[in-house]
Amino acid sequence: MALKEPKKVLIVDSLPDASVGLQKNLTGSGYQVFLVHNGAEALSLAHTEQPDIILSEVRLPELDGHLLLNTIRADKKLAQCPFIFLSSQKKVDERIESILLGADDYITKPYYIQEVIARIEMLLAEKEKRRNRDFFSGRLSEMNLVDIIQTLEVGQKSGILKLQRNGKQGEIRFQAGTVIDARYASFSPLESIDKMFTWTEGVFQVQTMDVAGPRKLNLSNQEIILKGLQKIREWEALKVDLPPLSAVPTLHDLDMQDTLPSLSLEDRQILKSIDGERTLLDIIENFQTDELMTLGRLKKLFSHHLFKVKEIKKNVTHENTIDNSHDKLHISFFLKKWHQDKDMKLSLMHIFFNTPSQLLAELNAEANGEVPKSQPDKEQKQASIVDKKSKMAQKVYLTKSELMMIREKLK
Q: Which of 194, 327, 330, 400 has a Cα-to-Cα distance from 273 of 20 to 30 A?
């Protein structure tokens, strides 16, 4: 089992002997400690060693503690590094100024070494939690590519979005909320993102981080989203009256296709690819033409009864439905305590958890102390159709904190 690298602590103190005891105790606790005696040296070492936490006196030669902190916070690679002032300055105004400048803690001298170590451990634990929150994932059936792009754009996030569907993976890169590149198989960036808009099933994961590299997609996010919405609408419309794309088709009658002169060369190639093993989605992905065109041809062939469904393969990514009292209790708590905007919270729950409209109405009523009215099946179906249409017409902007809040409330 590989050993974890020790956390790096940088101590900056103008008095050579003042922090020796702290250095020894931190080293004994498993930390790698760097001890320097002026601000300029500290800044240089911070760039080369990338410490996990910095402890500094306020009064320093060459570069004082406040200027050192400002410089650290302005550096993208060091900006998130926890910073503690260890100072002999006891004035309240001094402490307030240091905290307002961005210090995470302020400890006056003389201090108890174990207390300093405890505060270091607390700040490093918080830093690790923040790092973990920079990663989130979900199902594309609950949050499609358009929703994700809008979320990252509003949050001005940089990072890498990975999408997976049917064993295939694509990648989209963001800088400050702007899509700069997309990669899927050997397709160009524009072709790649265009194909991934039809991935309404599967999973996604986002890792927020600094992303380097040139911008390879010159369209604005709005232009990309408009193209995506159009493609999603066409994709969903073509899927109507077709079996699920996880269905495995088999031919009805091998001789029937020869009696239909209207069949094009592409239609016949699609029929030849139906082997009783591959799913409709496999056929769409492996065919060289545009997915919408292939889906349209499959729909035409199915309407002519040239193939039938042999079996429907189970999707390993199950729909996340809310159907037990425990989950309902958590969501009810979420609706009552967190989001005050009724329309927003209903939209959030619908997008993230594909929650049936009737249950949403019940939860909203409970959250507001109302008695929900029962809804006949016919009205419920009609409301579901309206929900789906409104989801396409009105996008909900989500920040990363909203995403994480929802996930945390349902744990």
A: 194
User: Which residue ranges of the chain lie beneath pLDDT 70?
Assistant: 1-3, 130-134, 253-261, 314-411
* Residue 381, both tokens: 């179906």
Integer Cα distance of 406 and 331 in angstroms: 9
CA nearest neighbour of 204 among 246, 239, 159: 159
- Tell me: the pLDDT tens digits for 100-119? 888 999 998 888 999 999 99
How far is it, in rounded angstroms, from Cα 200 to Cα 203?
A: 9
Assess whether 128 and 14 both reside in one domain.
yes
Give all strands (DSSP E) within 166-218, no chain letters: 168-175, 178-183, 203-208
Q: Is residue 320 part of a domain?
A: no
Among 89, 104, 132, the domain-final residue is 132
Indicate the angle between helix axes 291-303 and 265-273, nearest 10 degrees: 80
Residue 60 Cα distances to 36, 37, 89, 108, angstroms: 11, 8, 12, 15
d(CA 194, CA 213): 21
- What's the number of domains the chain is made of? 4
